[in-house]
Amino acid sequence: MNQSLRFLIIILPILILIFFTRVLLIDEDTQLATFEAKNFPTFELDDLNGRPVQSESLGGIKLINVWASWCITCLVEHPFLTELSENNVGIIGLNYKDSDTKANAWLQKHGNPYLFSIYDPRGDLAFDLGVTGAPESYLLINNKVVGHIQGEMNQIKWENIFLPLIQKAQHR
Amino acid sequence: MIGEISHLLSLSAVLLLTLVLIFNLFFSFNKSHPNQLTLSMRLFNHSCWLVFISFGIYVYLAISDDFSIAYIASHSNSQLPIFYKITSIWSAHEGSMFLWIVFLIAWSYLFLNSLNKNHPLKKLTLLMLSLIILGFLLFLLLTSNPFERILPFGAIEGADINPVLQDPALAIHPPMLYLGYVGFVISFSFITAYLLNGNFELQWEQDIKNWSLVAWIFLTIGITLGSWWAYYELGWGGYWFWDPVENVALMPWLAATAFMHSLFASSKSDVLKTWTMFLGILIFALSLFGAFIVRSGIIDSVHSFANDPERGLYLLSFSGSITLLALTIFAYRLPALNSSKLVVSGSKESFLSMNNILMITSIFSIFLGVTYPLIIESIYGEKVSIGPPYYNTIFSPLILIAAAFIMISIDALWQRSMPLRTLFITTVPPTLLSLLSIYIVWRLTGIFSILAFIGILSGLLIIFSYLFKIIKNLSKKKYINKGSAVAHIGLGLLFFAVSMNSILSYEKNLNIAPGQTISVNESVQEFHFKDIRVLKASNHDVISAEVSLLHDGREISLNPQKRKYATRGQITSESAIHASVLKDTYLTIGDQLENGSWTFSLKINYFIKWIWLSAALMVFGMLLTIFKKKAL
User: Fold this and answer.
1) Options 3.40.30.10, 3.30.450.40, 3.90.230.10, 3.30.40.10; which CATH number does A35-171 get?
2) If you count DSSP H runs as helices and E runs as strands, how many of each does chain B have, helices first?
3) N or C: where does chain B have the smaller number of CB atoms within 10 Å of the terminal CB?
4) Rg of chain A's alpha carbons, rounded to an integer?
5) What is the pTM of this model?
6) CA distance B431 to chain A (A)
7) B357 in reach of chain A (CB within 8 A)
8) Across the interface, do A20 and B316 touch by the CB < 8 Å criterion?
């Protein structure tokens, strides 16, 4: 009993340490991973005001931002998204597993940086898109998904990951 | 130039601390010279003062708007009041780490200098503390240097502090929390020193008791202020969100609470000594874990600082090594520590060891809640989030068991079993009264919620049993442990208030044009939107609404505001709150709609004041314990 307790007191923290080291190192890898461009999935959904979303509205360069009123990190990235929209970046919201009343109230309370928000309460479109949670952001160039960021969008990620992709596309 | 002096002072402190370590590690295991400790202490004290002065200069730099320092340029602004220029230092990673270290050093300095010169554990404690301080100073200077300059030309104006941080509660929340977190470095180092020393005849409990009590008070105040700030300033309308960073503050708090209880027991008798030592090590280990979670950015949260894997790896490896070192020594000494005495079942010690087990279970549950999303992500690549439902379900049974034990143990005796008759007399009246109260709550509100009722029951069991005890002892003129009674009633009140809040509070979203009056429900008969105005303040524009409510027959006027800050363009909502004894009327203004009307969110929150009161009672109880004349 005593022996196994002594063993446990040392082994458990070591396991926790190994685990967190792994998490830290993986985080770095995923950020470097390249993303393969694919077509935006087809869908039939309404926006948060109940109007059907037209697929033409997704043309050009658009930032698709997955958000929800229950998502705390979405509040963190919200000021930066507002700044982007003020600089004429077209942002389309994908309201994920949320209720429209709560989502609209959230937008009214915190401000709306989105051109419009696709209302996806069951997460159908999000599933086809490969969303793992909120917040996430996709870069859409001419109906093709060319970039993907998990978690909070910020200045650094925008400048290091999405901006080069946009410049590359414009260069062509 | 002054910035470089400040930088240099911190660097010199690193040098002196390195000297302390080298000097003692290489020469101590031989016959140590009597002056060795005196010299080491002098080196240590000097390095402390170097860091204090360095921080003092840094504060001066912030006040005098030295925007050639990158950190100050990106977190302060010449337009800020002096108070916020100072608090901007801890509004982000580098500066707050600096403050954290200053506190670490302050605690260590005060503790070591208060120890008797010939105290047998002084040298080993000094070594442990020097090692920890050195590790964190190096972390600061190598990975998160607050002294970095913008070269060749500094910024003309600073980028401003985040407006949500311009609040007195938030300005003192981090310092209080840090004082609490790092205060437990004393129990950590002292216990490690005791274990290394190997003379188990020594009494060590009294030397760290009051230090740990004070740290506990700071930690409690820090957590409460954070909660207060989220409620009043952030406009979230809630006080606790089970956010990962709140959780990592709660874990050391639980460990510290268990430690305090255990410490009282082990200073009375031998039985819980190993528990106490383990908990003493655990608190600081959990504080370090918290620092790692917040500062590595592995969890996205409102609290987390910028993501930087290098910092994360340094913190993880250093905190991990320190913790492992302490735990290894503990495990090595474990066989020698085990007391031959058995815990008498039904005695006070037996209930305190149950308390320890419950606390460890709670800590483990929270730890699991924090790490589970990471585990799932690393195995399946999926993101999951764990929210209030998990914690509520886990905690309700735990607090009910805890409350039951608190009630039963109220008349328990040291080292003696409790007679069945006493047990019966102490438990039956509070239980009956609590159940009756719950029945009344159910009839009055018409709401039936198992989880909330468990919470209310737990709270009332504790409150009633202590009230009975106080009445009984006062009538018999017997001694009452006032500190313990006040703190436990505070805990009971917390359970009660939180549960009542969860079943009674509600929220309404309204659309209303200026000049209009509407009726919301039976309680809020009139909602009159009088006027809306745009005002200018020094560093922001304000949209201010004037609203008057007829709430339960009383007229209340409220002025919710929206502010747009000039420098960062950030918009914040200033909720208007009218607080009465039982409930808060919490009004937030939203956006203007196309037809000219405005949206409002009206929240009626019950028992909020009682939550703050309960925290105040716990702190007050702990203060009574510190200043009690009779030694425990």
Assistant:
1) 3.40.30.10
2) 18, 10
3) N
4) 20
5) 0.81
6) 38
7) no
8) yes
